[in-house]
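Support request, please re-run this one:
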Amino acid sequence: MNLSVKHLRAFSALTRERNFTRAAQSCHLSQSAFSALIRTLEEQAGTRLFERTTRFVELSAEGRRFEEVAERLLADFETAFADLRDHAERRKGRVAIAALPSIAAGDLPPLLAAFHQRYPGIALALHDVLADGCIDLVRRGRVDFALAPAPAHDGDLRIEPLVADGFHVVCPADHPLARKRRIPPSALAGLPFIHLSRTSSVRQHLDAALHPMRVNGIMEVEHLATVAGLVAAGLGITVVPSLALFQFQLPALAVRPLQADSLVRDICLVRLRDRGDSAAASAMLEMLFAHFGKPVPLGVAG
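Re-run finished. Output below.
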């Protein structure tokens, strides 16, 4: 069977108009082309769908049986195609993002608000998880992309650097380190230090950059807000990435750049290598690249 939507539309038009000339005009076809569609439809069906006389065109008994089915098929097609166009033209869709907590709470909220205002029909989902969790969500197809450091094993992933994240020392405002403009790593030795969890990318980058020097870790916590509170209370100092500094803008704290060129956390856009971007995801990626001052890669712009 080799039928198309054109055949169904021709059938519907002739059912409605009961006249070949008017039905052909409504389909924007010549009468001969229109008649050929009806003839092919009847040949494929193996029966006459219309009774023809010199005065009128009426549905046959078999045509009446087919009428409801044809109208339903056309309606389903029109609905599905309209939904497809809405997604392609960014009127509808869904974008799921995995991001490090520092990005999810810092740079992303205003971006997501601007995106929602521009594309109100596109639903947004945000997973704020640590680096390993971000990569796992990408690999399981739960998110369109992740904003996280590149994993060690990335053969199945597309990795694009997005922003280089430097590190800063955070200490109480009356701490001796607060009097320095830049702080070398050696100045951290022996000082009480508030650590983030060993599973965080911040901790992993810090441990690797300071090795073999070891800091005097007195406490280890999961969340940056907790780190800020502990340092503000005078329990110790800490080192955090630039993208997380919004959580440390407190009167009781001083923030100073850490003088360590090797300590840079590259935040990347991570996607599955064999999966293309939806129109909705492409729209979100365009805003991300614009925000971080990166050119939109070929194939992302819609």
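The first helix runs from residue 5 to 17. The first strand starts at residue 50 and ends at 52.
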